[in-house]
Amino acid sequence: MNFFRQCLILISSILISLLTFVGISNADGHKGFKLGVVTFLSGPAAEPFGVPAWNGGKLFIKLLNEGKVPAPYNKKGFGGMKITAIPIDESGGATKQVQEFRNLVQRDKVDAVLGYVSSGDCMAIPSVADELKALTVLYDCGTPRVFEDASYKYVFRTAAHAAMDNIAIAKYLIEKGHDISSIAGINQNYAWGKDSWKDFSVSVKKLSPSSEIKNELFPKIFSGQYGTEISALMNSKAKVVHSSLWGGDLQSFILQAKPRGLFKRTQVVFSAGDHVMPGLGNKYPEGVILGARGQYGMMAPDTELNKWFYKSYMDEYGVFPAQPPYRMVQGLMGLKMAIEKAMEKNGGKKPNKDEIAAAFKGLEFDSPGGLVQMKLGDGHQAIQPHAIGTTAKDKDGNITVTDIVRYKASCVNPPNGIKAVDWINAGFPGADC
Amino acid sequence: MLTVNSVSVKIGAILALKNFTLDIKKGEMISLIGRNGAGKTTLLKSIMGVNKLANGTIKFNDLDLNNSASHERAALGIGYMPEDRGLIPELTVEENILLPSWSIKSLDSNNRLTLVYQIMPELKEMSERKALLLSGGQQKMAALGRALVSGTQLLLLDEPFEGVAPALSQRLSEVIKGLKKQNMSIILSQSEQNHTEDIFDKKFLIERGENVN
Amino acid sequence: MSEKLYNNLLFQSIFLMSFLILVGLLIPNWLVFVITKAIAYGLVGLGIITLMRGGLVSFGQGFVFGIGGYTAGLLGTQAGLTDAMLLLFVSFLFTGLVGLIIAPLLARYRDIFFAMLSLAFSMVLYGILIKIDAIGGSDGFVLPESTYFGIKPSSEYADYILYVVAIIMTGFISILLRYYYDSTPGLIALAVRENELRVEYLGSSAFNVAVLNFTIAAGLGGMGGALNGIALGHIDPEFTYWTTSGEFVFISILAGYLSVPAVFLAALLLELVRSFSGRYFPDTWQLILGLFLILSIIFIPSGIGSFFKQFFDRLKKSK
Amino acid sequence: MVDEILTIVLDGAIYASWLFIVALGLTFVFGVLKILNIAHGGIYALGAYSTATLVPIFYSLGMPEQLVILAMLVSALAVAIVITPIMERGILRRFYGQDEVLIVLVTYAIYLVLEDVQKLIWGMNSLYVSEPRELLGALEFGSLYYVGYDLALIGLAIFCGLFLWFVLNKTQSGKIVLAVIHNPEISGCMGVNINKVYLAAFFIGAFLAALAGSFTAPLISVQVGISVAVVIESFAVVIIGGLGSIPGAVIGALIIGMARAACVHKLPEAEIFIMYFCMAGMLIFKPKGLFQGAQARKI
Predict the structure, then answer these.
(1) D13-22 confidence digits (pLDDT tens)
(2) Do A124 and C139 touch (CB under 8 A)?
(3) Which of A419, B155, C233, D228 is most exposed, with minimal Cβ within 10 Å?
(4) Neighbouring chains to B with at least 3 Cβ pairs closer than 8 Å
């Protein structure tokens, strides 16, 4: 036994030194472009966000490396450089992510990091990124606070923040003539849920001051059991129920609320409701107003780029792409454009991070979800057009999205320099609709 | 029938039994005498397989017990009455007594129960009471009854008279004397020599885990 | 004799510390950082080991880890205190004080009940932290960059300087702990582990031993939390979550309660396994970490420290 | 007002039933094996997955709808049959008699492994089996609809509790288990094969965990990560009720279920906190929980 133990110790120490060596040796002498990709690969956010996003990203990187993406993305890789992606699991909390980020930058010496679904991670990473001078592209997270509370040199977010989701929904409710005399909300008990509800409820109050707030529920994240909440929502008899639930929580909520008649009795709105459609299919209720955090999936614009992406994804994975793959691809496109713009300037060399950051600032590029403009946060934060729709059965009995209203980016996003919440409170001054 | 051959047992870092040797023949009754902590309970538990041996062997009817689990030893016909009685409080006296017969398939529970009640009729009177409600002395008696059910060949009685009122102690002593007549082998541990002295065939003195005869 | 041994210990420790400080210059930055983090976790593990010597295991050291981290963080953001050494020291004292206050509640209990009660405390703190939006709620908050004697090091050297500070402070704490372990109250704790009743008969109070040990463990855990927060530049309620506490218990069990340096080695080992399995097996790192935990508990039940002890015992014999 | 109280009681009872089934297995395993099994949550998830796999097969075979409950039972049983020998025989048995906290850590490690095992077997896509939930219709109650299936969960919980109680207290095998709970060493000396009892008890615990997962599967989307919440909530129940106590699990589940329902309806802000609050309060005032095992008098 003793001998066995000692052997084990020996083996494990050899293994560790070996891995360390691999880690170090991997870091040097790389010619292409090394990209750390951080997204949820385990835990409850993996199935709805992390995995489909990475599926989209993986596919897009492969096609980029093969040079099979249509113009203006037809150059191979990033400006001719082959992209090597290192995927990292985002689960485990912000503090763990800071460490993983450091490992990517210091140990693997990646050229850039693309990642982060969780707002908590997006709040934690940028300061480290600037400290380590590491180019970082946030591709998904929603909190407006990243560039409203601080400014960073090497950090960019290629997707609009969450304020737009809820402002647009409030506008949609009014434009479509829904009764918003009373509203209730069920949102998760953390920043995302709380911010979403605040943005929505304040927007509604601004647009329709007589509207009354009935019920504000904040169940804890990943609770999965909503029987009590559904009773409370139905008891409140609010005309509109708002929710920013996502992933398994949203799926479970739908499955539990549907037989109890919630969707028949009240107008339910899901601010990020599209990404569970591929999974739920026809179990998705009719008549629900939903956003996709951008013009994605069933609400994507009818452009060549979108048709190409939608089809490529569908062919590869057999389901249509919802918001997560769109957003990751959007991040990759932004990064590619910035790199290639920087290369134009420096004569085609591999650009350093300062050159890429300079090119990224204020960049505008086309994505399958429409024109993305890095307009907020002094050119570090994107705005993009938005779409809201209502679910309905099509003639084959399949659930689809109809009644789509599209909003210009400048209509549902604050102008540069104003915080989203102040902009809402002030009644959307300067909105260009 | 039972030979304990230079057995050592470690409890934590302490050597609780050192090269202890003992043997008992069929129908013999031996007394194991030693102070508290001398190793009596450790020895009995080792025979039952509760404690692992550091070295030495224990044989029962020439069968090496070293690798058998407690329940297998009980099935060989060894009955054990622990010092702290070890009755199951939620069960009735009768259920406690019957416990070994539920698991050991070779025992006929009716037969064994009749035998126990025959030897100790007072147990029958309290048979439906929960063990939780018995006095210490009554518990000793029930535990002895339970040991008798599985102990068809050998009984290990750990301090049966300890902490028992004199009258009951006298009664227990009579019962044990009566068992000797049934050709039963018995090892009985005591912290001091007492009134039962005359019934033993052999005596082992144990001190700090060693046989000091 | 014992005089000589202690001198020897002090000499050994200072030698080891200087060696590590020098090594820090040669190894890559990420490893410097990983070691700093391992020191932070090791400090908490050291606290659990102090408790283990008295026969107790806390499954809720996330409680003190979190308090230490938030103390350092709030002093940094709210009071503008950024001196790393001062933050570590203040967190140590403050968390120790919190420990002293709640210790009497915990010290009455043993075994699984002690473990569960401490776990419950950490979960209550978790529940509170995610509710307070003013300090970031579930997202936590970013710490200001640390200074040393009023100087803010450039970002290339920040990691290394914190590493040096961590090694020096932890080194001296470890020496003090060794003295404590070998002192009368420290040895009484070991006796409590063996036989609590006997200790009570001899006139010492097992309760007092538990209170003292828990207070020390709390202080150490708080300092670990502060160091972890400062090193990462971010803290969040995850510090107090039960999975974090589980890692601390694992570190101390992997190390065993016999040796102080073993704790830091165990923490480093865990850090490396977790980080490399996350890097090379992003989909199944939990599986690998889990198997690593199970196998190390099966094959090294008395901890790495027992190897150290065997090794030194053999060394002494051969002399 | 009365309506609202009734709603709270009903919602609380449904939630408590779910909690109880999960906690029952946990507390039973602790009672017999003295193991606080963190991996219990993992087994719960396996139960949900196995139902989500078997029930569609069941339907595709064209079996009568009403028998779907049987398919759910079978899937829970299958999980228990597979997991018990691996966990109890293969791993946990090595640690019997060692520090309880060490074993908690081992089960934590197993929990981690099970998380990824789910991924390896079923992949990342979520599975749905909402069909069984449509079986029992709906019930109008005041201004609310309740799904019959949810209400039936209350019945299932009561059945599980009573059944286990009956087996333990009224059958011979159950009484043997009681003996082992009370004193495994002595029971062994009385001829009880403890390893067999441990195996059986673990099997029952695993079956209950899987059963809870099976019957929850129709309510949720079955995907990775569903076990996280289960672990802490079922712990809270057994800590409040007393480790190893079945009546304790009943009371613990009811306390948390009712407190939570009351909070959601009357004080939503406190909902997230109430469970920890109950747990901490109980630990401070009655650290061994509401119910402690009986002990025979020493003298």
Answers:
(1) 999 999 999 9
(2) yes
(3) A419
(4) D
